[in-house]
């Protein structure tokens, strides 16, 4: 089945126009996965939220920055996004132990440029069997490579619960660093 064009990539607000290419490449997997909403961890201004909403996919947009979420809500209202896809905006800190989401209730989790990967080990608890996970770490600009995972770290955490459709690691940072960037798209297996 052909991928639908994503109108979220063609508006005048530059911070909204660069949805994750990896996510968009797997749009059919996302659309035809199990029923249930998608959670975007650390959604920021919502560039990926808007792209998914325009594909008529229900999404829970979570961030701990109220100002960014407020701007996302205004933009979604102005664009009548909720007429196309159900967008629920939640202000929460997902680094705490209490998530505002039921376990085994999501069709997928999207985690793009989230600065702390501690929650990755819990993602399988919230995704339904057959659901998907898309992770893209941020790039290594300046000294931020120090916050990135080391080679194989993310793979080891996820391999017992997910089948990888795409997995790429790229070494970054100083020569003595073992930091890597990760891009992955995976489907949750039955536990």
Task: Give the secondary structure arrangement, pairings included.
Layout: H1 21-25, H2 27-31, E1 38-41, H3 47-54, E2 59-63, H4 66-78, H5 81-84, E3 87-91, E4 106-112, H6 123-126, E5 127-136, H7 153-158, E6 162-171, E7 180-188
Parallel strand pairs: 1-2, 1-4, 2-3, 4-5
Antiparallel strand pairs: 5-7, 6-7
What does this entry look like structurally?
The chain is an alpha/beta fold and 191 residues long. It has one domain (18-188): Rossmann fold, CATH 3.40.50.150. It is built from seven helices and seven strands. The chain has helices spanning 21-25, 27-31, 47-54, 66-78, 81-84, 123-126, 153-158, and strands at residues 38-41, 59-63, 87-91, 106-112, 127-136, 162-171, 180-188. A hairpin with an 8-residue loop joins strand 6 (162-171) and strand 7. Mean pLDDT is 80; it is low at 1-16.
């Amino acid at each position: 089945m052909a991928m639908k064009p994503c109108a979220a990539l063609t508006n005048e607000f530059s911070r909204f126009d660069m949805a994750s290419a990896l996510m968009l490449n797997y749009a059919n997997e996302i659309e035809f996965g199990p029923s249930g909403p998608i959670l975007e961890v650390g959604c920021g201004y919502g560039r990926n939220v808007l792209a998914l909403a325009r594909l008529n996919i229900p999404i829970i947009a979570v961030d701990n920055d109220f100002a960014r979420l407020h701007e996302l809500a205004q933009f979604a209202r102005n664009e009548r996004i909720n007429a196309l896809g159900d967008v629920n905006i939640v202000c929460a800190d997902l680094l705490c132990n209490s998530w505002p989401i039921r376990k085994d209730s999501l069709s997928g989790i999207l985690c793009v440029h989230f600065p702390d990967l501690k929650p990755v080990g819990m993602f399988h608890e919230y995704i339904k069997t057959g659901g998907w996970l898309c992770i893209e770490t941020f790039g290594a600009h300046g000294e931020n490579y120090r916050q990135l995972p080391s080679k194989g770290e993310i793979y080891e955490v996820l391999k017992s619960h997910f089948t990888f459709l795409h997995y790429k690691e790229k070494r970054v940072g100083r020569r003595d660093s073992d930091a890597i960037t990760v891009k992955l798209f995976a489907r949750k297996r039955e536990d």
